[in-house]
Amino acid sequence: QGKSVYGQRIEPAGAVERVSLPLGASTGVLLLQVSTPTQRQQVKLLRTN
């Protein structure tokens, strides 16, 4: 089972919002999930050293 390594709630922005994620030494498959009140997107990321 996985665990949450970072979470952040941001106020509505313009067309583009950029956030840097402080992942530290986390490696492996990470799931990035972004959601709005009407949509949700989840992407698998592979992080290596």
Describe what you observe in this structure.
With 49 residues, the protein is mostly beta strands. It has one domain. It is built from no helices and two strands. The protein has strands spanning 28-35, 40-47. A two-stranded antiparallel ribbon has the order 1-2. A hairpin with a 4-residue loop joins strand 1 (28-35) and strand 2 (40-47). The chain is globular and about 35 Å long.
Q: How many structural domains can be distinguished in the coordinates?
A: 1
Largest sheet: 2 strands, antiparallel
**Count of DSSP-assigned helices:** 0
Overall, the morphology is globular
How big a fraction of the residues is strand? 25-35%
> Could you tell me how far the N terminus lies from the C terminus, measured between alpha carbons in angstroms?
22 Å
* Average pLDDT: 84
Which residues sit in consecutive blocks of at least 5 with pLDDT less than 50? none
Helix and strand sequence: EE
Measured on Cα atoms, how large is the radius of gyration?
12 Å
By DSSP, the count of extended strands is 2
